[in-house]
């Protein structure tokens, strides 16, 4: 690293082995304490967001990494702080030009923190009444049907499915269908 770069306190992006983001964050916290770097390395962030998924017919909310393989670190870059972070196990480097880490714009950090702070994930319903859909989960899996009702607040839809030659309304979670 070039001698004594002093850019002030900023957020930087670390590239890590994918799947080891939390381990890197833990290791880095321990290294900061043991090497008395609290005055140069302040925060470590593994950006996650909540996503709604269907598992075994039930809706579950899971934490998903926004940027797999990356960890954000708020720090003042000096020779010694750079060395501590760069030599943390499973850190492959900083994002930047050459050996100089590039700070992340403050508004990007703010929008990421806002995204992470969302308590209830929103449904993205991209179908309208009358659309043809294929049911991809539940007891009517592989049936085709036509949407007759949409309840955006609950993330539920009613689909008319042909059962024994009769159109039968079936209430489904939006995540249980795919647009044809």
Major pleated sheet: 5 strands, antiparallel
Structural class: alpha+beta
Element-by-element helix/strand order: EHEEEEHEEEHEEEEE
Spatial gap, N to C terminus: 54 Å
Integer average pLDDT: 88
Helix content: 10-25%
Low confidence ranges: 1-6
Lateral arrangement of strands in the main beta sheet: 12-11-10-9-13
What is the CA-based Rg, rounded? 24 Å
Give the overall shape.
elongated
Count every helix, treating DSSP H or I runs of 4 or more residues as helices: 3
- Classify the beta-strand content into a percent band: 35-45%
Total number of strands: 13
What does this 3D model show about the protein?
This protein is an alpha+beta fold. It is 18% helix and 42% strand. The chain is built from 3 helices and 13 strands, in the order E-H-E-E-E-E-H-E-E-E-H-E-E-E-E-E. The N terminus is likely disordered.
Chart the SSEs and their pairings.
Blueprint: E1 9-16, H1 21-34, E2 41-45, E3 48-55, E4 58-65, E5 70-76, H2 79-86, E6 91-94, E7 96-97, E8 100-101, H3 106-116, E9 132-135, E10 144-151, E11 156-163, E12 166-173, E13 177-179
Antiparallel strand pairs: 1-5, 1-6, 2-5, 3-4, 7-8, 9-10, 9-13, 10-11, 11-12
């Amino acid at each position: 690293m070039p001698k004594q770069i002093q850019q002030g306190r900023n957020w930087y992006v670390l590239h890590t082995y994918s799947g080891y983001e939390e381990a890197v964050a833990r290791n880095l916290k321990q290294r900061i304490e043991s090497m008395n770097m609290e005055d140069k390395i302040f925060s470590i962030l593994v950006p996650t967001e909540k996503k709604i998924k269907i598992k075994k017919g039930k809706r579950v909310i899971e934490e998903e990494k926004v940027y797999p393989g990356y960890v954000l670190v708020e720090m003042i870059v000096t020779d010694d702080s750079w060395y501590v972070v760069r030599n943390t196990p499973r850190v492959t480097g900083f994002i930047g030009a050459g050996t100089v880490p590039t700070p992340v714009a403050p508004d990007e950090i703010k929008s990421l923190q806002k995204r992470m702070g969302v308590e209830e994930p929103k449904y993205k319903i991209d179908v309208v009444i009358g659309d043809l859909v294929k049911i991809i989960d539940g007891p009517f899996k592989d049936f085709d049907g036509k949407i007759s009702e949409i309840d955006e607040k609950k993330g539920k839809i009613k689909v008319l499915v042909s059962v024994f030659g009769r159109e039968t309304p079936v209430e489904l979670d939006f995540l249980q269908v795919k647009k044809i």
